[in-house]
Specification:
Blueprint (H helix, E strand, L loop, with lengths): L1 E8 L2 E8 L1 H18 L12 H31 L9 E6 L6 E8 L13 E6 L4 H14 L3 E3 L11 E10 L2 E14 L21 E7 L13 E14 L6 H6 L5 H35 L6 H22 L10 H28 L6 H12 L6 H9 L2 H23 L1 E6 L2 H5 L50
Parallel strand pairs: 5-11
Antiparallel strand pairs: 1-2, 2-4, 3-4, 6-10, 7-8, 7-10, 9-10
Helix pairs in contact: 1-2, 3-5, 6-7, 7-10, 8-9, 8-10
């Protein structure tokens, strides 16, 4: 094998590789010999099939396997011998090959840039922290109480309206025959909740306690029970009473209904939940400050292919958002050329920071364990009650889905590693300051937009950093600014 480097420009390397015909023929013969020992052909004992027949019957297939292996092995050897770390899959093109001649192919590869991460002990960062005020706990309790429905019988027997509940018995029939699951006694139904099939609840509005009514409905075509899908049904309904929503008292009894001992225990649980939320917000501000500082302290060339792939992802999501909102590119406050230039800068920053975090993880042996991925899979599965097992198995069987979980875990571990080394100062702020848009104060300084849409903020999506391989999903131009760090 002969490897010749034909180009070296920036992070791009080009090679020409020649594999001699004799080497290829030797590998073909070796493989055919193995085939001959295993194959059974009429008129020949195993291992006694002439090579000429083996070449005739299996030569093309074996030649394809040999060429593929030769290209892969030689390409890897060319990279190893030149101590190159490819940034992406090398582009390989066979330029010459005829039966009995040398194999010639080219390798185009972009390599990882060489850089040295800064001394993180010199990194000065600010972390915003906020105390949980009693008023925030009270607000949260009010929200929880508001989500709990509590109905009581109306003082006078009036007609039911949307938002009321009715206590009723019902019996459903299709073609005059009662069906399984179509009957209940003493059932409470909130009108407007959408618990029953379309049209059922609407026909109970205007009814009073003691009324008996026939409700005529049609089961949806996609109804879960196939024997009822698309069928007309009649429900015989007897309404016992109409109930109206009542305020929920936030007391010990309320806390006990939620599975806690008393109101103080509920307040403690709510406070801890809010503190955890505040902690996540604090971490996000710290991470944002860290990424800004890392970007300011590192300036190295990024592989063009990686930058282009990141840009394509951002631009694709931008166009999808325009389609979703019905907007047009010309409605934006910047020209397409200006938008592409700014998104190009954003893509370059993302790639650079991704490479930096990956390198920090590599040289410090930071890795994501199987247990951590499994925990993330379980967390994702719990988001789908009743389907936990199916979701977990789906992740187990899909390596790409597992990588989508592994990437943010890796990023968080690297960020935590850097934070441990950095000089981090906490700053006490209010809840409003903790949740404020860090760029909002810049808005009054901007001039009114010349077109329909406001100009994208200067840093836009560049502040939405991600682990390597995790793709961005910016909303139109300005929406790309949304932070997920």
């Amino acid at each position: 094998m002969q490897v010749t480097q034909t180009s070296s420009e920036g992070l791009k390397r080009d090679f020409t590789v020649v594999v001699e015909a004799a080497e290829i023929d030797s590998k073909v013969t070796e493989k055919l010999t193995t085939v001959g020992e295993q194959v059974r052909l009429p008129g020949f004992r195993p291992g006694k099939v002439p090579m000429s027949i083996l070449r005739q019957r299996f030569g093309n297939q074996v030649m394809g396997e040999v060429l593929e292996e030769a290209v892969n092995e030689c390409s890897q050897k060319a990279l190893n011998d030149n101590d190159l770390r490819p940034a992406q899959q090398p582009k390989i093109e066979i330029t010459k090959f005829d039966q009995g001649s040398d194999l010639e192919f080219t390798i185009e590869v972009e390599v990882m840039p060489e850089f040295e991460p800064m001394d993180f002990s010199k990194l000065k960062l600010e972390k915003l922290v906020a105390d949980v005020e009693d008023s925030r706990v009270d607000e949260a309790l009010t929200e929880i109480a508001g989500a709990q429905k509590n109905f009581k019988k109306v003082a006078r027997n009036r007609k039911a309206k949307a938002g009321d509940a009715v206590l009723m018995d019902f019996l459903g029939k299709v073609d005059g025959v009662a069906f399984e699951g179509g009957a209940a006694e003493g059932h409470q139904l909130e009108l407007g909740s959408g618990q029953f099939i379309p049209g059922f609840e609407d026909q109970l509005i205007g009814q009073k306690g003691g009324d008996e009514v026939e409700v005529n409905v049609t089961f949806p075509e996609n109804y879960g029970a196939e024997h009822l899908a698309g069928k007309d049904a009649v429900f015989e309904v007897k309404i016992h009473e109409v109930q109206e929503a009542a305020d929920v008292e936030i007391d010990d009894e309320f806390a006990q209904k939620l599975g806690l001992d008393d109101l103080e225990a509920l307040k403690t649980a709510v406070r801890e939940r809010i503190e955890a939320d505040y902690g996540q917000l604090s971490r996000q501000t710290l991470k944002r400050n860290m990424l800004d500082a890392l970007s300011d302290n590192h300036d190295f060339e990024v592989p063009p292919g990686m930058k282009q792939a990141e840009f394509d992802s951002i631009w694709e999501q931008f166009q999808k958002e325009l389609e979703r909102t019905g907007e047009k590119l010309e409605d934006q406050d910047q020209s397409e050329e200006e938008l592409r230039e700014e998104y190009g800068s954003i893509a370059e920053r993302r790639v650079r920071l991704g490479l930096l975090l990956a390198e920090v993880g590599r040289i410090n042996n930071i890795d994501v364990t199987t247990e951590e991925v499994q925990q993330a899979m379980l967390a994702q599965a719990r988001n789908f009650p009743g389907q936990e097992q199916q979701i977990f198995q789906m992740f187990q069987q899909n390596p790409e889905m597992q990588n989508s979980l592994r990437a943010p875990i890796f990023e968080d571990k690297v960020v935590d590693f850097i934070a441990e080394l950095a000089d981090v100062k906490e700053k006490k702020v209010s809840f409003e300051e903790l949740t404020a848009d860090p760029d909002a104060e810049e808005e009054p300084k901007k001039k009114a937009p010349a077109k329909k849409k406001a100009a994208p903020k200067k840093k836009a999506a560049e502040d939405k950093e991600e682990a390597p391989k995790k793709k961005a999903a910016p909303k139109k131009k300005a929406a790309a600014k949304k932070k997920d760090d």
